[in-house]
Amino acid sequence: NAGVTQTPKFQVLKTGQSMTLQCAQDMNHEYMSWYRQDPGMGLRLIHYSVGAGITDQGEVPNGYNVSRSTTEDFPLRLLSAAPSQTSVYFCASSFDGPDTGYTFGSGTRLTVV
Amino acid sequence: EDKVVQSPLSLVVHEGDTVTLNCSYEVTNFRSLLWYKQEKKAPTFLFMLTSSGIEKKSGRLSSILDKKELFSILNITATQTGDSAIYLCAVPRSGNTPLVFGKGTRLSVIA
Known about the structure:
The structure holds 2 protein chains of 2 kinds.
Chain A: E1 4-7, E2 10-13, E3 19-25, E4 31-38, E5 42-51, E6 54-57, E7 64-66, E8 76-78, E9 87-94, E10 103-104, E11 108-112
Parallel strand pairs in A: 2-11
Antiparallel strand pairs in A: 1-3, 3-8, 4-5, 4-9, 5-6, 7-8, 9-10, 9-11
Chain B: E1 3-7, E2 10-14, E3 19-26, E4 33-38, E5 43-49, E6 56-58, E7 61-66, E8 71-76, E9 85-92, E10 99-101, E11 105-110
Parallel strand pairs in B: 2-11
Antiparallel strand pairs in B: 1-3, 3-8, 4-5, 4-9, 6-7, 7-8, 9-10, 9-11
């Protein structure tokens, strides 16, 4: 079991570029979420999914897009990168919802210049 | 609005000290409260609390929930340098929506 795998681990983008952060899990978890972590701000929810074909917005969705075509994969797309999106991004998954806790990926550190 | 507030935001202690980290919450239809430890990378699960007054314990770490006063504490006894981390508290939001996290407490344990 690989758990939750995020790629890449590090990325530098120029303002205006687009990219996709990958997240895959092999635990057959229905529930997946994307968070961003900024100094002093804790973890803030970007988007989440309760199953294949179902996604919804979190607290800070602007500038990001997601899709969930399979149970395993939940990619996060940055449409036009901005310096304000410089952050560490975590993908998390859970078998049956948030109550029982998440398994987190190791994170992607993104810098937008 | 669902909210989690942690205090203190940072703390420096010496090895061997005992520390108490605080987490207060406001959420509609409370179901559970979770504690995570974050070292260099991803948060790792410590405890899930659902009932008031029942202490959860793992080695030198313990946690308890007070549903009447809407808070939880995480205690670490005989701290070690390996306890240095950010400790995160989180609660599920209403419905089936994901966890809302506090800002975390950054604990530094010095030898």
